[in-house]
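Hey, sorry to bother you again with one of my protein questions. I've been puzzling over a protein and I'd love to understand its fold better. Take your time with it, there's no hurry, and the full record follows here:
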Amino acid sequence: MNTVEKLAKYIAGLCLISLMWGCEGRRTTDDTEVITVDTAEREDTAKVVQTGKTAEEQLEEFRGWLNQQSEKGDTAIRKNWPKVKEELRQRNARLEQNFDSLSDKSKQEYRDLQERYQRWETRQERRQQQPLDASKLSQFKDQLLREYKDLDKVTAGNIREAYLTFMGTVRTKRRNWTQDDWDYVDNVYGQLNERRGQVEGQIPTTDKIKIRTLQAEYLTLEGAADAQSVVRGTKK
């Protein structure tokens, strides 16, 4: 084989290698594009699942959120009702997605909170369809708050006493209240909470802690009354 033939075969070999390299490069590029799409899909999925919080933390937030809704007055609830229900749907979706990672105790708490919200929502729907009687509401306000019934005059210095007065009446009268009565009591509770929000920044820390304790007690008693009402309704 002469020098020219050797050179020609050498050049041909280089061309073949270059061609194969180019094909491999394009195939790799194609594969990379597929991988990129797959990664993007995984990232999109992760955005749905990943909230930056554990399921236990989400449950704690849900508990706090529900307490906030229960503290609101009728006017605020009515104004934001569609938004409240949509936020519940989103919170439920996140918790249901991570339900298996909750402890057994937290799973039961989550179901209890769902039931509590359902009872609260039913009450709100009923109250929006059947507004409260102004005269009866005034009577309940007098009974529950007594000297603190004029909430505009309740200050950061005496709001703790207003809550103590309210809860003292709740403890005494609650066993005789009907479901309809609880609607009026809850309305007064919402008004008191609205006033607390207006003077929040001036309330002493010790009073804030006491008020939170009283609020938690009220929500427990109210929830128990709602549950008993549901049981009575089921028996009927």
